[in-house]
Structure formats: C-alpha cells, structure tokens
Design goal:
Layout: E1 2-7, E2 17-18, H1 19-22, H2 26-38, E3 41-46, E4 50-53, E5 57-58, H3 70-90, E6 100-104, H4 107-114, E7 123-124, H5 132-141
Parallel strand pairs: 1-3, 1-6, 6-7
Antiparallel strand pairs: 2-5, 3-4
Helix pairs in contact: 2-5, 3-4
Length: about 140
C-alpha cells in the first residue's frame, strides 16, 4: 500500500464541505488529483484538523502551520500520527503493509511527522526544495 499526504492551502471555500473540496489553490487541486491517481490512499494535512480523509466534512478555518511554534508542530505531528494509526486500524491495515509514504506538503507539515514513521517504511518527498512554480510545472507536465 502506498500512502500520500497533501497539505491543505490557505485558499479555501467559505462553507462547510468535504475536505477534498475545501481547499481551492491550484497547487492543492493538482497535488491532490495527482496523488489520487498514483497512491492507494491520500490524506490531507491541516494545521487545524490534523489528518483529514477526503470525504470528511469540515468547516472553514484560519490556522496555518507557520503560526505554530516548533513545540506545537511536534505536538501536532504526534496527533496526526495517532489519527493515522486509528485510520489504519479501522481498515485493518498493518504497518508491514505500507510500502511507501509520500509527502506533497511543506516542511512545516512534514518535518516532525516523518520522524514518527518506522524506519522500515520508505518515506519520500518528491517535490522537496522546489518552489511553488516548479511544483505546478511538475504537475502540469504530468497532465494535471
């Protein structure tokens, strides 16, 4: 099983809706669509909600990871990790079944979270270090 994490975006709808419809930035839309086509499961990372499943109904919020201290981001990562374990447990998926974890998320979202994965699970950040324009170009070149 391959799992992808996509970070939310500042641009969002102003009504309660499924998580996959809340975030409206071009980068989020393209990254989410790409991940849906290339990974078995895709989760959205939110500074406010933590781990989101695409169909989860959420209300608009105004909280960004950059507003959190390093200590708060570490606590957030632990909370997200627990949420992920709960999701996997509900689906009867064991760590051993995960063959890859990919992050399409900014450094603030992924740094402390990556540390919580067992060393036996490969973790990749395919677009690490690329500015937004080059990330958008990557997705465009892939047909998104």
């Amino acid at each position: 099983m391959k799992i992808a994490f996509v970070s939310c975006s500042k641009m969002k709808r102003e009504i309660r809706c499924p998580a996959c419809e809340m975030f409206t930035s071009a980068l989020f839309r393209k990254a989410f669509s790409y991940c849906k086509d290339h990974y078995d499961q895709v989760y959205i990372l939110s500074a406010h909600y933590g781990l989101l499943h695409e169909k989860q109904m959420i209300a608009p919020f105004d909280r960004a990871m950059r507003q959190l201290s390093a200590s708060q981001r570490r606590d957030w990562a632990v909370r997200v990790h627990i949420q992920l374990l709960d999701q996997l447990r509900k689906q009867s998926i064991a760590w051993e079944e995960i063959e890859l974890v990919a992050f399409y998320a900014g450094e603030d979202y992924r740094t402390f979270l990556i540390e919580l994965f067992p060393e036996t699970i490969p973790v990749v950040v395919p677009l690490a270090g690329l500015p937004i324009g080059k990330q958008l170009r990557f997705f465009k070149e892939q047909g998104y």
